[in-house]
Amino acid sequence: MSRIAYVNGRFAPHRDAAVHIEDRGYQFADAVYEVIAIQNGRFVDEEPHLDRLDRSLGELRLAPPVARPALKHILRETVRRNRVRDGIVYMQVSRGVARRDHAFPAHRNSSLVVTARTTKPKSAAKSGGVTVVTTEDIRWKRCDIKTVGLLPNVLAKQMAAEAGAYEAWLIGADGAITECTSANAWIVTRGRDVVTQSPTHAILNGITRRTVRAIAEEAGYRVVERSFTLDEALAAAEAFLTSTTSHVMPVVRIDGRPVGDGRPGPLTGALQEKYEAHAGMAPGDGA
Ligand code: PMP
């Protein structure tokens, strides 16, 4: 089946879909994005994702390309035309096309691109957990805004891939782990505290992170938002990462050294199961 993309008011075959060479997303990474999971035809945590999109737009004074009801319609239509039942929908909003000049253009004609594709749950293929490596966090000071300026993330993810690892955990200037290149980082201490970096400007406040936090608290675990170092992670009982596409993913080795007993931890497993139920995955889809 051929894929269909939405570009500025039109649906086009994916292979032909394009924005202008002077689109500010292309020229300056002057653009923000969101990714929402589709599970059994249902959008997972759609409103929080759209709220975060609004926040990203507001922080950069980007004009919303369409109102939320219209955006929701476009997302559904893109998912429908691509026959996605389990997968993702991606949306990107840029400051539009203008003669290349750093300052904002006078117009407020944002560009909107939407794509959707079928994906397999990653947790199914990674039931033994994943390994990560660490590297310096060289990103800018507003990682809370979900912009397409992802070059440091790309370089760190490539480093991880070349090391045979699933992700890179990024270490900030203060020596604390901020997050991963495209996920949030967590540890479970030997005292069973579930720990993740607080939502400062140094990290993207993941929607999965927020959901998992709520699920963990509901289950009676103590969630603590604070910094933690690599040494603390290596001494932890368990580690995991969270994102829209990885869900709750156990981390079993960091820089080649085992976390806990080097196997996915029980508390991580419990959160993974609860998150996958929240996301509407059929039992066994992900585990
Ligand atoms: N941090 C970064 C840098 C990311 O790119 C992502 C994924 N978009 C996340 C965290 C996780 O966010 P979410 O749970 O909303 O997918």
What is the H level of CATH, i.e. the homologous superfamily of the largest domain?
Answer: D-amino Acid Aminotransferase, subunit A, domain 2
Anisotropy-based shape: globular
Please indicate the count of domains: 2
Please bin the fraction of helical residues: 25-40%
- Measured between the Cα atoms of the first and last residue, the distance is 29 Å
- The CATH architecture of the largest domain is Alpha-Beta Barrel
CATH class of the largest domain: Alpha Beta
- Main sheet attributes: strand count, strand direction, barrel closure: 9 strands, mixed
Can you characterise this structure?
- The chain has 287 residues and is of the alpha+beta class.
- The protein has two domains: 4-119, Aminotransferase class 4, branched-chain amino acid transferase, N-terminal domain (D-amino Acid Aminotransferase, Chain A, domain 1), CATH 3.30.470; 124-278, D-amino Acid Aminotransferase, Chain A, domain 2, CATH 3.20.10.
- Helices cover 28% and strands 28% of the residues.
- The protein has eight helices and 15 strands.
- The chain has helices at residues 24-28, 46-59, 68-81, 122-125, 151-162, 207-218, 230-235, 266-278, and strands at 4-7, 10-13, 31-39, 42-43, 87-94, 111-118, 130-136, 167-171, 177-180, 184-188, 193-196, 222-225, 238-243, 247-254, 257-258.
- The strands form two sheets. Strands 7, 8, 9, 10, 11, 12, 13, 14 and 15 form a nine-stranded mixed beta sheet that branches. Strands 2-1-6-5-3-4 form a six-stranded antiparallel beta sheet.
- The longest helix is centred in the N-terminal third of the chain and has 14 residues, at 46-59.
- It is globular, with a radius of gyration of 19 Å.
- The two termini are 29 Å apart.
